[in-house]
Amino acid sequence: PTASSTSGPREVRAPRGSTMQCRGWEQEAALRMLMNNLDPDVAERPDDLVVYGGTGRAARSWEAFDAIVRTLRTMANDETLLVQSGKPVAVFRTHEDAPRVLIANGNLVGRWANWDEFRRLERAGLTMYGQMTAGSWIYIGSQGIVQGTYETFGAVATRHFGGTLEGRLVVTAGLGGMGGAQPLAAAMHGAAILGVDVDASRIMKRIETRYCDRMTYSLDEALAWLGAAQAERRGLSVGLVGNAAEVLPELVRRGITPDVVTDQTSAHDMLVGYVPVGMSLAEAAVLRGSDPAGYIARSTASVVDHVRAMRTMQDRGAIAFDYGNNIRTVAFDAGIDDAFRIPGFVPEYVRPLFCEGKGPFRWVALSGDPADIARTDELVLELFPHDAQLRRWIELARERIAFQGLPARICWLGQGDRARFALALNDLVARGEVSAPIVIGRDHLDTGSVASPFRETEAMRDGSDAIADWAILNALLNVASGASWVSFHHGGGVGIGNSLHAGQVIVADGTDRMRRRLERVLTNDPGIGVARHADAGYDIAIATAAREHIRLPMLER
Ligand code: NAD
Known about the structure:
Organism: Gemmatimonas groenlandica
Subcellular location: Cytoplasm
Number of helices: 18
Function: Catalyzes the conversion of urocanate to 4-imidazolone-5-propionate.
CATH class of the domain at 143-337: Alpha Beta
CATH topology of the domain at 143-337: Rossmann fold
Distance between the termini: 60 Å
CATH architecture of the domain at 143-337: 3-Layer(aba) Sandwich
Low-confidence stretches: none
InterPro entries: Urocanase (IPR055351), Urocanase-like (IPR023637), Urocanase_C (IPR035401), Urocanase_central_sf (IPR038364), Urocanase_CS (IPR023636), Urocanase_N (IPR035400), Urocanase_Rossmann-like (IPR035085), Urocanase_sf (IPR036190)
Mean pLDDT: 96
Bound molecules: nicotinamide-adenine-dinucleotide
Helix content: 40-55%
CATH superfamily of the domain at 143-337: Urocanase like domains
Shape: globular
Strand content: 5-15%
């Protein structure tokens, strides 16, 4: 459907069905997943090859896209394609168990690892920003962020509230691209959640996609709805049109202390991402253009009020955390000395999961048939019947998550379980219970694959936040273990200069050969995450390594 001799924007959708265009399912899978990343139902700006996250691209140019497709269609089963920042640069003879594609995106030597230099090189046509799963061809749409947020709220529930948020009030702000997953994810845990956003259109969008249940301009009305839901221990999300720097202090004045308070306004960018109190969106846009410094002074003053209210709620007993938007730092720099009493969400809630090898594991039905994913949903429930949080996620995801592009599912599985599940998927393919092979991959945001001191590796116990060796070892190990494609990127999530990270994708085609590779990859890939955290001194990781027989020489005697 995409064969075109002129290289330029066009509509791209992955082929469906059980007939290959390529010479092997691994090449076919890479082809379909590249195209799926650019599907108009998946990508944010497909004409520019932008998949998500600012300028995260699937290929450097349409010429490069065409050359990748052409090459994948003709490559033999013992060859490996090399992709350098979204451009196919060479094909080498390797062997059948080697990856079919190796990808390096956006990597720069440390001294040159800044946005200015990156943009200069990008303009010169020499590099591309790959984000995490854009340039590595395993983005599956907004299901990923919903699931990640579900896990975070699930960890909050487990740690503080006996495993559920039923009857609890959660207060947050920012219902944008990522933050818009909060209402659905929290309500899935039974919470009554108030999501404040200054922009009514952002809330409307969440209502349309059923990520948010109700919308109002009145705080009193919102609190009445939420109070009723809390009393009935019923999950409910309410989007309130308002400014967080006004609404949260008002809650404090009224003596209302939520059980949980967090925030996902775009406070990492005080000029574009955070609207000051007392201004309409239109007035904000004018001031932003006419007096940027004045704008930042006003938005910063608002963040101070906002964080002060969060801190007061925390002092009154709320569980507060920073959700990766840097709001603590803005407030701290503006004089709120105790802003960092609000912990970051990774060290607090995600790291304990990483220590067990848990992370965002995902799979995609290459057939394009939703029935195939329905069968795999059943498989998760059959294999892990005792994991109540996982069951809840699968049941609600089936009902609430609309597929974008090829049908896909995501859940967090840990060391041992990922390999078990992958082998069971391969068996499903072998028995013909699904109509085509299944692709298994993950986000680069995972236990052993990322070095990112502002996010995934913030405040490591041994101070190893900026050590990037582990991400490189992860990529090398996935090549050695026989993944179908392996990628190594720079700058995903938190921007150029701030992160280095690796990804792997592997195809379950039902053969014994892939069975052996799946067993190795899905054991070793999370395994290095357990090893990384054990090395940093985390007890849970040390115990997980012992239980799962991961050999750690420095802990042997
Ligand atoms: P976005 O820009 O799409 O959405 C931000 C929203 O905040 C907008 O809807 C905007 O109207 C609203 N907003 C701005 N000022 C406000 C105010 N004063 N009161 C109420 N609402 C206000 O951004 P996004 O993609 O949703 O991401 C939000 C933030 O969360 C970013 O800083 C992002 O980096 C961070 N984030 C971090 C992680 C992580 O660390 N894993 C994950 C997701 C998002």
